[in-house]
Amino acid sequence: MPKRGCPFAAAAPLQLKVRVGQKELSRGVCGERYSREIFDPSGAASVACSSCVRAVDGKAVCGQCERALCRRCVRACWGCGAVACALCGLVDCSDIYEKALCTSCAMFEA
Predict the structure, then answer these.
(1) In sequence order, what are the residues at sequence separation of 6 or more whose Cβ sits closer than 8 angstroms to the Cβ of residue 74?
(2) Domains in the chain: ranges and CATH
(3) Cα 90 to Cα 9: distance, rounded to the nearest angstrom
(4) Do the beta carbons of residue 76 and residue 83 sit within 8 Å?
(5) How many CB atoms lie within 10 A of CB 62?
(6) What is residue 48's DSSP assignment?
(7) Strand 90-92 vs strand 99-101: parallel, antiparallel, or unpaired?
(8) Helix (H, G, I), strand (E, B) or coil at 68
(9) Strands, E, within the chain: which ranges?
């Protein structure tokens, strides 16, 4: 018995992988707001957050790698209170509440 054909062949859009970079984001629906978050009014590039690439709005840096962080990406370690970024921190979801752990404390929890 032959395979049944797709009933939506003509109407279905192609499902291709699309790379979305800064150029595409700046031209999108929220392009103006995105451009303001990344660039200063003077036109010079500001310091970008190492986790989400938004403009850094404070002086928070990761305690492990010393990369700049915006206030949305700052995670305080549950064990020692150190600031950790998304690359250096580990989120433990095994309990009811999520716990962020720095790499030093994560070694002892494992």
Answers:
(1) 60, 83
(2) 47-107 (3.30.40)
(3) 44
(4) yes
(5) 23
(6) B
(7) antiparallel
(8) strand
(9) 75-76, 83-84, 90-92, 99-101
At 51-110, the pLDDT tens digits run 887 888 778 888 888 888 888 888 898 889 999 888 888 888 888 888 888 888 888 765
* 22/98 Cα distance (integer angstroms): 31
pTM for this prediction: 0.50
pLDDT tens, 36-67? Answer: 666 655 655 567 887 887 888 778 888 888 88
- Residue 50: exposed, middle, or buried by beta-carbon count in 10 A (0-12, 13-18, 19+)? buried
Query: What one-letter code names the amino acid at 60?
Result: A
Sign of the four-CA dihedral 24, 29, 31, 37: negative
DSSP state of 92: E
Token output for 34: 């995105």
